[in-house]
Amino acid sequence: MIVKITDFDENVEIPFIDYEVSGLLSNQMKYLHENLDEETSINEDIIKIRLYFEDIFPFQSDVAKIRLDDFIAREEIEMNVFLSGFLEDI
Length: 90
Hints:
Elements (H helix, E strand, L loop, with lengths): L1 E8 L6 E7 L3 H10 L3 E5 L2 E7 L9 H5 L1 H20 L3
Antiparallel strand pairs: 1-2, 2-4, 3-4
């Protein structure tokens, strides 16, 4: 599974992060699409997930603004771990 952040915006009413997840089987994508609470869509072999943040946005700190690539990489890893655990329920 490969998780990539494709977009994010903290300057909107409800901040969000968009993820694209590839490398999954079709039944895994379908399971995520049907069971995640977040906004999802499937486009061929990629599932897109939009995660909204009403409390703390992961990239809002001053350190995040300086080392944004590190914070993005960490967020991608955390989403990968979360989705891997979620898929164990199949």
